[in-house]
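The records we work with from here on pair a chain with its fold. These numbers are not coordinates but entries in a learned vocabulary of local backbone shapes. To see the layout at work, look at the sequence and tokens printed below:
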Amino acid sequence: MTSDMCSASGRLDYANKVMLAPMVRIGTLPARLLALDYGADVVYCEELIDHSMLQCQRVENELLDTVDFIKAQANHPVFRTCAREKDRVVFQMGTADPERALKVAKLVENDVAGIDVNMGCPKEYSTKGGMGAALLSQPEKVREILTTLVNGVSKPVTCKIRILPKLEDTLSLVRMIESTGVAALAVHGRFKEERPRHPVHADIIKAITESVSIPVIANGGSLDYIKGYADIQQFREATGASSVMLARAAQWNFSIFRPGGLLPTDEVIRDYLRYAVDYDNVALNTKYILQQILQAEQQSPRGQKLLASQALRDMCALWDMGEYYDEVQVRRQARREELERKKGVSRYKPILVDGVYTMHVEYIRKAYPSAVSPKTILLDWSRREFLPQPTYETKKHTLDARFHSTVTVGDKRYASSFWHKAKKLAEQAAASVCLKTLGMHDGKLQGETMEAKHEGKLQSETMVTKDDGKRHTKNQWKDLSGHSPQRKKCRTEQANSEGKVDTFNDLELEGKEAGKSQTQTDDSTRKTEQSFTGDQVVTENGSGHKVDELYKQKCHNLAS
């Protein structure tokens, strides 16, 4: 941070600054860091609602070197920040209650430079809860919220408003706001009913700056005034404001903050994608921001491919950054494994927790072929091993309505430490943990991911080559102590079919490495085999064992 960012007291100074405005779905960490890179002095996060933040816990993310405010069992944080922006990021909240506002401010105050209250958003999702622009007609509530925050936190407090229909009412409101002790006031120079297509009222912002002594931050000039960096000063002079806050001009091209001028769109996108990858930004959010940068170029062939993309890597590939994405994943995986070694845990190796073999596994349905799932593979395997049908015990988290399941197979129990949004997903994750613990493949499609490579390594370690030249699975159904479960004696007592059973046992282990999915039958070759299900026609073999016809044919083909 440059020396002029803070006042003599060490608090954020809002005078003579150029700022990134708070924008819903835009002001996430990658966008904020990019704005700072290009020259923004201060950056605001998107408006975050107090009720949502109060469900979060503060977590230091060692993997990304970030501080995350995340709900219990959620996949992604509500608010993510890092050390680089700590002295320059302002946290904006949506609130209509002083006590809730104070609780949120206390939650984040040690990780941000300032606290701001949204009092200007005209959208229904904000106003229907009495927040945003709805507060403009409740000056006493405005006074109470701001006074509570100013007296309750150590960081400077500000608010962002819109102008009222009558100038005298606007001036009365801003003088009252100044009396609460706020450090600055941001003013969007439009009425509540007006939208970006309407001209900004620079004259009213100027009247406000002349009526208060605190810094006024002018906002709303992207359409009428600001097309490039030099125009920022023009808007500052037209409004008489101390500082300028940019929203749409920055949304279209974050390099608007560069004194040297705007950069080409592709260069800005690549710079943005680096931060999105580095900080594991949500793919949907990344896609939305890229759409705003592209604007009319969304209709181009590449823009259409972006609209069809779902994964962050696919977006990177459109701008020749697929290799960068892969490199980051390799480094991140190495870092993850280093941290797991220090903590004595692993997502790839089960640990025994209160008698339950546990791994951190998230079940994502689209990662599996159709008609294939860990539950069906586990059920089919249990039947062939003459074990009781797997049973699932599922519980629901009362706070966030997420589910956790434990599966019992034989006399052992397995579970994932990840809580899922649906009961069925939780059961699938538990089945996956069971299969992985036993050294079997859970049916998941294997792409070129670190997890797939790691699983492939584990599987290859369980394969041995016998004298017949074929590869067979070694010790697949063994628990961590090395003891195999008891099988029914009838499996070996039928002498006239013993050969068939032995052949079946040897080959079924080889075939079920991929369950009903892709399979690796040789270290150098992967072949996608025909899937099979328990719904196929079955017959009784000489030992009374029920065997899938399709599966038996596959075993015969492998043997030959």
Remarks:
- The longest helix spans residues 322-343.
